[in-house]
Backbone:
């Protein structure tokens, strides 16, 4: 997350993780990130108010940035596709 976003918003943007094998990218540096088992990125994005965060599970390592960007792009593509379908069906 950018420093500019952090400065104006009290929310954190999170990308979902799972320890269950996925077609999406596996974190190559899951141990370096501080995670306890092999971890895959999921194309699911959420925001949460910073005050609701209980603890930080890990820190994404630079080697895994491309995989995170890919998972994020899948999430965005899915959201755009779903919204386009809603508009086609007349749903507002």
Residues:
């Amino acid at each position: 997350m950018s420093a500019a976003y952090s400065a104006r918003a009290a929310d954190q943007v999170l990308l979902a993780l799972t320890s269950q094998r996925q077609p999406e990218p596996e974190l190559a540096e899951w141990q370096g990130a501080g995670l306890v088992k092999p971890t895959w990125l999921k194309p699911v994005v959420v925001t949460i108010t910073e005050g609701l965060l209980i603890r930080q599970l890990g820190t994404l390592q630079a080697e895994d940035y491309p995989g995170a960007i890919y998972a994020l792009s899948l999430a965005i593509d899915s959201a755009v596709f779903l919204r386009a379908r809603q508009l086609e069906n007349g749903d507002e």
